[in-house]
Task: structure prediction
Amino acid sequence: MGIVFQSFHLIPTMSALENVATPLELAGVTDAFKKARGALDTVGLTHRQDHFPGQLSGGEQQRVALARAVVAQPKILLADEPTGNLDGINGIAIMDLLFSLRDQFGSTLILVTHDPLLANRCNRIIRLHDGEIDHKVTS
Amino acid sequence: MSWRVSAKIARRELRGGLSGFRILIACLALGVAAIAAVGTVRSGIQAGLVSKGAELLGGDAEAEFTYRFANQSEHMWMQGQATTVSQIVDFRSMAVVERNGKIERGLTQIKAIDEFYPIYGKPKLRSGEEFSKVFVQTGDHPPALMERLIADRLALEIGDTFKLGTTTFILADIITLIPDGAGDGFGLGPRTLVMTKDLEKSGLIAPGTLFSTKYRLKLPPDADLDTLAKLVEIDLSSSGLRWRDARKAAPGISAFIDRLGSFLTLVGLAGLAVGGIGVSSAVRTYLDRKITVIATLRSIGAGNATIFQIYFVQIAALSLIGISIGLIIGIGVPIAFEPLFTAMLPFPITLTIFARPIIESMVYGALAALIFTIWPLAQAENVKAATLFRDASRTTSTLPRFIYVLISVGLTALMLALVCYFIGSISLTLWTATGAVGALSILYISAIATRKIAQRVQIWSKGRSILRWALSAIGGKSEGSTAVILSIGLGLSVLASIGQIDGNLRQAIKQDLPEIAPSYFFIDIQKSQMPAFRKLLNADLEVDSFEEAPMLRGIISRINDQPAEKVAGDHWVIQGDRGITYASIPSAETEITSGEWWPQDYSGPAQISFAAEEGEEMGLMLGDELTINVLGREITGKITSFRNVDFSTAGMGFILAMNPSALAGAPHSFIATVYTTPENEASLLRNLAEAFPNITAIRVRDAIDQVSSVLNSIAAATSYGALATLLTGFLVLIGSAASALHARRYEAAILKTLGATRRSIVLSFALRAAIMGMAAGFVAIGAGALGGWAVTRFVMNTSFTVIWPNAVAIIFGGVFANVLANMAFAVRALNTPVTQILRTRE
Result:
């Protein structure tokens, strides 16, 4: 499972490339860095691969987080308010990227959001109200 | 999951720099440095003693006889083994100077030598003259050499004359270095060197005089010291001699250095324990700061073992830096200061890099780091990935897995076992460990109590906002009052214990003794002189009282026909020779605890009355047989009574008393203790010394001063050790103040927005530091008094009273240190702009 957080949660002492490669290293994948470079390329950040999170903008950080979430080709992608900390334009770009990555890797995307427009792009919507599923509006 | 990947991730993590770890590194470095320094100096002294063994001993081997010279067959035996045999006669005497009708006396240790002295080493004289040329008699009087101290005391210049007994000597030079001086052991009075042949007419070496003879042997190069020692046991076992060889030239110094070294190592370990608290809290603070990163690592697939490994590698690397810095300081500083040590110490020291102190301090440092970090490291496992989803719990303070608890216990046991091994004393280690654990437990309970009390009394501080803020901070969890009280409290407890022990010891020596101690000990009074001696004392109205006793010296060689060491182990009574007295009836003060004193006119087989406490320690019973070697003759007697002997009054105390007929015929002298007023001491000495030039007076106050000066140097060495502990404690305080900086900034910002003045905020910060310092100080006094009581009562056998000035100083020290450490950071917290803090706060 790959997770994308609202506040990115990149490891500040690692470069963009290292952040993406770490899950592969932890999984014992041998060519972790090669694959990580590929994932960064997919999100369009090859030129920023040696930068640290503090040197990246919010949108760039979230793109690195996306690359990290999909690099191991997870069956499930969990995204918790992925655009919550981004401005409108960056938010739309990230969402487009997220959906295209989902299609590219064939993962199931579970998206948590307050944005109805964003929710409508999904196949199925489950609405939660005070921690419980609101069956009336779930489609 | 491999360690390689964990190490890689750990390395990336460490790019964040060492901030937050300076205290961890400093705490470990300081603890390791203290232990390494003690070990290096100890090894240096031992190496010095070994390399200069023959010089210190004055020969390859030495046979020492008490009270007598070697007889002809013993002489022949020694001549048979050695290429050269040199004879030394050692005793105390009074050097007397007559100047303008006034007489001055000084106690001196006489070293009477022969033409072969010294076999090894080179004595140095102030004039730079060759030693061998000095003892050629040119004038009317034979030549003598003196140490500067005794020559100065008697205002003697080179060429002046003085008397020893009835012989006049001329001071030929001042001796500045006696190569075998340190090997002579503890002597009362500075030394005078003369030729033995010149003493023949002095009347000083009469039968029964307290002297010893030492025969120094120069052996052929192929001689085997082990074989020779065994041969001595076979050929000369009944002669009562004491055999030493160059491998252990100064066993007294060696044992003393070992003991002092062990004690200082324990003080160093206490420092490491204090530092351990700092290490532990530094790791905890660091991991708390890393909760998000740990949770992130979890979210991308890191398991329990990986998380542990990643942070273990980081802490291990940092600990290694700390330990290495400690080793460099601990070994480098003593080596750099070698000239100072050589000048200060009365025995040789060879400082270089020794393996043992390196291994010892490294092992201690590494184990301390492990013991104090494994718990917080294991707690890092409790961080869940869910922490990253908004409101999830961020706490790590739950118990680690059972396996880590088990590892912690195992590591602590390993540490204790190693300390036992290195120190060489199980009981000392266990007592110290019990003390440390006890102190930590008391401190922990006190910390909780302080927090609870602070919570309770808050309601009474209404209207006093400064006090209320302070109390609520102490009562709350965020302030870390437990860590502060533990670290400062343990450091202060060590200091308080040392203060109490030192104070009590000084008190025992300086204050208690003189009130009951005699003014003088007189030794070497011949039996024929006793009636006149008594008459003179009885005629002196200022003399309160005096005691006298015949005295011989002997060595307990066998107990119930078994070698004494087999029965009594290494008890001090069987180490070397002891004074023996005889009496037909017990003195009025004698208190028989069991058995019966012999009848007044008893003349049967020898009977012994033994000191009760020492007898019990040695496992002796009524009816046991002791064989005592007196002047080369073996006397076997039966213990028929035990009696109380009190050594604490500095009066007369004999472990062994025998019936008179048992010792009949053995040449001996008398000793006497005289009690008089301090004003009368000088004139009494003058009168007695004029009447009996051969007797030696030892002023008790001088002897006490000499013991005090030895104690002073021990106390000084201990203070350095304690200072390292205190410094570590202070570092821990700074560390805890630094880790609280973030919370303080926020608190100060909120209080400022609510209208608090800078003054009131600073006062509140100072107040909470003072309260916590005081709480730690009070506990330290309790722990210190308990430790001090245990040591003075059970180890030193003296009474204990709390030394209040030391205790009060400890409380003030605690308050001062904590306030100082906190104020530096309080100012920084106050100087940060409010808007900056409140905007960046999540």
User: Anything to note?
Assistant: The first strand of chain B starts at residue 61 and ends at 66. Chain B has four domains: 1-52+258-424, 56-248, 450-515+700-842, 543-676. Chain B has a mean pLDDT of 83. Residues 280 and 372 of chain B are 5 Å apart (CA to CA).
